[in-house]
TrEMBL record:
Key words of the record: Signal
Origin superkingdom: Bacteria
PANTHER family per record: BLL7424 PROTEIN (PTHR43737), DUF1501 DOMAIN-CONTAINING PROTEIN (PTHR43737:SF1)
Biological classification of the source: Bacteria, Pseudomonadati, Pseudomonadota, Gammaproteobacteria, Lysobacterales
Protein name: Uncharacterized protein (DUF1800 family)
Signal peptide: 1-23
Length: 542
């Protein structure tokens, strides 16, 4: 298995690092807006690969019946599948991060609000918190993290500014970036600057001034212009003082660690001095904490950088690592005006990302796409086929066998505030030389690919846990019907369901040679799915 996985590593990296020689000329062309109803199952599956945790046959049929726009409309009306109520309903088991991951996996695989959950996943990689933080690693932190996810899911299609304010006040973010119990300056201490830095660098405006298409604004010497100074960070940190639990008393150190709602700000611990923040905007002395936070959120939201900055980040999470300037511009313009004069409409933004001509061109050009995130590989494999998931057990749990999931990407568990990977990561070699990005390759090496491959070989293909626990059920693909298909039909089903009709002749030939050698129908189906899942053609979402 290790030798097979090692070869898969080399194939994936070669495919990802192959130089897209005509990328620049390709993006200079014009696009014709395609028909709203996909012309084939493969085209519908590709759209659903971008918009969900993987296409199912039922969703393919639906998109081909009602069209892309109507499908998006229906998705945006669905309420969020929530995490915290599930965790609070558990009995006789710990309400920890394992239970939270069970809920996430179950939602990603079967919840109806696929686009909302996918948007929450994208937002969680911009407004990053992590269960690896010492203040969030315990059971209370797990439930606070669940509440944080629910906040992102609820706001998935709402306005950016209220979301940024809710992120600022959320106790989970307060703990993670240390403005929770952040006190005004006093003998021996100054306000913590973590949140002040990251709300600008990662959550809104970025480090350099941007044009509407995401290109850097240059000074007269041709150099990028910094968006803000260290002095702006220092003064902004004073805004985020006085925060504590929403159920705290007059003492900033009071309150219950089982509190999951927004923080409140104690005016006695809030810095009331005048402050000069981003864009040399002055906050007069004597303002209350809510007044200052609201003013800062509005300044950051309205900043010229925010629309292109957020647009590019979200495009990278849904469709392509290297969007053209024109693509970024179209999405950023939708951020600035949704068509009804509303600013920061995230629903309009994600709709533009998904219906944009650059995203909908089919077949996709070789220059378009992104490496699939590890979690999305796993969910897409199961959702592509008839599969079974466990029901709720006697304790209220959803036993999704999270510990055996072959991913290096547990939601809300990134190794740093910079997410699992940075948006501008360029692997050394041909991609870097071409000025292109592959964020998802940053944490990937031969060891992690082997772990993912080994996990895929087991997860989803059996309902047996091991260790004698034969009564437990975990997610698995129903292989019997698939294994009864003739070789040619099985290959075509794999092509349509997993590669949206873009399987190369070489891949088809490999499967056609392998399948007749396998006697068992289940083994034929399992091998066809697994080999395709480990191929570069599946690893790179086009």
């Amino acid at each position: 298995m290790r030798q097979f996985a090692t070869k898969a590593v080399l194939l994936v990296l070669c495919a990802c690092l192959a130089p897209p020689l005509h990328a620049r000329s390709f993006f200079k062309g014009n696009f014709e807006r395609p028909a709203d109803i996909p012309a084939s199952d493969g085209e519908a599956a590709r759209f659903l690969t971008q918009a969900t945790f993987g296409p199912t046959q039922a969703d393919i049929d639906k998109v081909r019946t009602i069209g892309v726009s109507a499908w998006i409309d229906q998705q945006m009306l669905l309420p969020a599948t929530r995490v915290l109520p599930y965790m609070l309903g558990l009995e006789n088991v710990r309400r920890n991060h394992n239970r939270r991951m069970d809920r996430h996996l179950h939602s990603f695989m079967v919840a109806p609000d696929q686009l909302r959950q996918r948007m929450a996943f994208a937002l969680s990689q911009i407004f990053v918190i992590s269960s690896q933080h010492p203040g969030l690693i315990n059971d209370n932190g797990a439930q606070q993290s669940g509440a944080y996810w629910d906040m992102l899911a609820d706001a998935a299609f709402d306005s950016y500014a209220p979301l940024l304010q809710n992120v600022t006040y959320h106790v989970t973010m307060g703990k993670y970036l240390s403005h929770f119990r952040n006190r005004k300056a006093g003998p021996g201490h100054e306000p913590d600057e973590n949140y002040a830095r990251e709300i600008m660098q990662l959550f809104s405006v970025g480090l350099k001034e941007l044009n509407i298409d995401g290109s850097p604004v240059l000074d007269t010497a041709g150099r990028p212009i910094p968006t803000y100074s260290q002095d702006a960070i220092t003064d902004l940190a004073k805004v985020f003082t006085g925060f504590t639990f929403g159920n705290a008393g007059a003492d900033i150190n009071s309150g219950s660690f089982t509190y999951f709602g927004p923080m409140k700000c104690l005016e006695a611990e809030h810095d009331k001095t005048a402050k000069t923040v981003i864009g040399n905007s002055v906050l007069p002395a004597g303002r209350t904490c809510p007044e200052e936070v609201r003013r800062v959120v509005n300044l950051l939201s309205a900043h010229a950088n925010t629309a292109p900055f957020i647009a590019r980040r979200l495009i990278q999470r849904f469709t392509t690592s290297n969007p053209s300037r024109a693509y970024v511009r179209r999405v950023a313009e939708k951020f600035r005006d949704n068509g009804d004069g509303e600013y920061g409409d995230l629903g309009a933004v994600v709709r533009q990302i998904l219906i944009d001509p650059e995203a909908r061109q089919f077949p996709p050009p070789a220059t378009f796409g992104k490496v699939r995130e590890p979690l999305l590989q796993v969910t897409a494999i199961l959702r592509a086929w008839p599969f079974q998931v466990p029901g709720v057990d006697a304790n209220g749990s959803l036993p999704m066998a999270h510990n055996s999931v072959p991913v290096t990407q547990v939601p809300l568990s990134a190794p740093s505030v910079f997410n699992f990977y940075e948006p501008d990561h360029q692997p050394p070699g041909t991609l870097q030389a071409a000025g292109l990005y592959a964020p998802e390759l940053q944490p990937i090496d031969e060891a992690t690919i082997y772990d993912i491959a080994n996990g895929m070989a087991h997860y989803g293909f059996s309902n047996y846990f091991g260790s004698g626990d034969t009564g437990a059920v975990r997610p698995y693909i129903r292989l019997d019907t698939l294994g009864a298909l003739p070789d040619a039909q099985l290959i075509e089903d794999v092509n349509r369901r997993m590669l949206y009709g873009t399987m190369s002749p070489g891949m088809r030939a490999i499967l056609a040679e392998m399948l007749p050698r396998l006697a068992s129908g289940r083994e034929r189906a399992r091998s066809a799915i697994l080999l395709t899942a480990l191929s570069p053609e599946f690893a790179v979402q086009r």
